[in-house]
Amino acid sequence: MKAPFWTTRRRDALTGYLFITPQLIGVVVFVLVPVGLAVWYSLNDWNIFRGELTFVGGENWAALLDDPQLPSVLGATAVFSGGVVVLNISLGLALAVMLNRRFRGVTVFRTMFFSPVVVSVVAWTLVWGFLLQDNGGINAALSVVGIDGTNWLQNGNTAMVAVIVTQVIRSVGVNMVLFLAALQGVPGELYEAARIDGAGDAAIFRRITLPLISPTLLLTAIITIVGALQAFAQIAVLTQGGPGLSTTVLVYYVFQQAFEFNDIGYGSTLALMLLTFVMLLTLLQWQLRRKWVFHEN
Q1: What percent of the chain has pLDDT over 70?
Q2: pLDDT of 290 above 90
Q3: Residue 51 domain-assigned?
Q4: Does residue 58 fall inside a structural domain?
Q5: Cell inner membrane: is it a keyword of this entry (predicted)?
Q6: pLDDT of residue 102
Q7: 94 contacts: CB under 8 Å, gap ≥ 6
Q8: 272 vs 258: CA distance, rounded Å
Q9: Is residue 207 a contact partner of residue 165, using CB atoms and an 8 Å limit?
């Protein structure tokens, strides 16, 4: 007797493929195809107005070495990303530790710190743009205590700091919630045993808390670094990359080259360089997880 074609195993496999098909279509259409087009455009000089696409090979890639602005852009990207990552993770962890306690109003504080996350990025940035102006709310508050504030977004020494702080205040709630969930998963018996042995708060945090929440620390590090490298709206709305190139990060430089200067080929090359940075940093963190993430073999 011939075995039926639609066996249980094949039905289960078909069901699985049907479930992942929408996701696969999304990956192909919105990830693989755009990356493939970016690679193709990076090898061409595309004149949008004339509709001409001229193959230039590696000229756009060679132009990276001759771009006098690129070092400043990469430096601004490193400062912005480093500042956002360090402040976001450290403040998120500190807030989670403080709010992982039972006291009156703890729910209100958790909601207050997380609420900026659900606000539109553009709306949030526009409000902070008004607050940081020369006659804005920040300087008005400083004048009350006798401090003469500056125009935070037009001063090269303060523009990057202002952008970083704006980004951190809005996004720190995500890391706070992730750390809070991780802290609540740490068994209380471990803390009790450590205190019986005479361990102090600092030793308990270093020897028990950090190792047990290290998987969450890895997760927050990855998503925070990727998010910082992709931050665009904050720069576009607050400073437009200025003053000078002080806040021109790589993702905004990609936008300028491709859509303001209409150099699609060079813009695509820069976008691929950004993609490479993100992939390498993520891969590096993933490989280092075995050395500092608890439970990893």
Answers
A1: 98
A2: no
A3: no
A4: no
A5: no
A6: 83
A7: none
A8: 13
A9: no
pLDDT at 160 over 90: yes
Gap between the Cα atoms of 254 and 48, Å rounded: 16
Query: Looking up tokens 């969930």, which residue turns up?
Result: 181
Query: How does pLDDT run across 163-194, given as a tens digit for each residue?
Result: 999 999 999 999 999 999 999 998 889 889 99
Phi/psi for 105 (5° steps) reads 90, 10
Residue 19 Cα distances to 8, 11, 134, angstroms: 17, 12, 54
pLDDT tens-digit series, residues 212-225:
999 999 999 999 99
The answer to whether residue 223 is domain-embedded is yes
70, 256 in Cβ contact below 8 A?
A: no
> Which range of residues forms the domain containing residue 183?
69-296
* 89 belongs to a structural domain: yes
Distance CA 53, CA 71 (A): 29
Number of domains in the chain: 1
Instruction: Copy the structure tokens of residue 228.
Output: 């910082």
Cα distance between residue 161 and residue 40, in whole Å = 37
Cβ atoms within 10 Å, residue 295: 8
Q: What is the pLDDT of residues 24-33, one digit of tens each?
A: 999 999 999 9
Q: CATH no. for residue 158?
A: 1.10.3720.10
